[in-house]
Write a structure and sequence with these properties.
heterodimer, A: about 110 residues, mainly beta, 6-stranded mixed β-sheet, 3-stranded antiparallel β-sheet, 9 strands, globular, B: about 120 residues, 7-stranded mixed β-sheet, about 50% strand
Chain lengths: ~110, ~120
């Protein structure tokens, strides 16, 4: 089955830029979605199809995807961005299933 | 407004059965898949399976095949996740989410149902 690898944690000072990576074999050929989950809340879609933002998500959130790595970038980080972030793809191999990365805890220093 | 509203928290004993629900509103329930996602305490998201309420087509993650049953009643816009015999390891938060199918995102999520196993 397809594996997605994320760093367990990323730390960044307020106002700086955070980059969260999601590694997978030839992930650049897949559409990657990103979810934000704050403590005690359900996940929230923040980026879909690599770089599109749902309505209501700040422009500070952006994404890219190429080769074996997809990246979620959070610019001008705020305290309210502190959360767990998960990448997700659709595995179109024989399993045909949704696959999540292990998640990255973003800490705002 | 799209909403997925899940049933309330449950406390059960190992060996008991359980069925939790997810009611959709604000969209055509039969035109989108419903996914179920498990989150064990302090852990990440795990995809369990999906159902298409339009025709009840159901797919399971190999990790959950045979462990749970996913169903839906399109007449009341509700999807279900059920266990016939719970185990202590089933303690977790369970989310339903709307899924456009295949490579599309899980764009709306329910609030979650906490299932706690206690002997």
């Amino acid at each position: 089955s397809y594996l997605l690898t994320q760093p367990p944690s990323v730390s960044v000072a307020p106002g700086k830029t955070a980059r969260i990576t999601c590694g997978g074999y030839n992930i650049g050929s897949k559409g990657v979605h990103w979810y934000q989950q704050k403590p005690g809340q359900a996940p929230l879609l923040v980026i879909y199809y690599d770089s599109d933002r749902p309505s209501g998500i700040p422009e500070r959130f952006s994404g890219s995807n190429s080769g074996n790595t997809a990246t979620l970038t959070v610019s001008r980080v705020e305290a309210g961005d502190e959360a767990d972030y998960y990448c997700q793809v659709w595995d179109s191999s024989s399993d045909h299933q949704v696959v999540f990365g292990g998640g990255t805890k973003l800490t705002v220093l | 407004e799209v909403q997925l509203v899940q049933s309330g928290a449950e406390v059960k004993k190992p060996g008991e059965s359980l069925k939790i629900s997810c009611k959709g509103s604000g969209y055509r329930f039969t035109s989108y898949w419903i996914a179920w996602v498990r989150q064990m305490p302090g852990k990440g998201l795990e995809w369990m399976g999906i159902i298409y309420p339009g025709d009840s087509d159901t797919r399971y993650s190999p990790s959950f095949q045979g462990q749970v049953t996913i169903s839906a009643d399109k007449s009341i816009s509700t999807a279900y996740l059920q266990w016939s015999s719970l185990k202590a390891s089933d303690t977790a938060m369970y989310y339903c989410a709307r899924h456009g199918g295949a490579a599309r995102p899980l764009d709306y999520w329910g609030q979650g149902t906490l299932v706690t196993l206690s002997s």
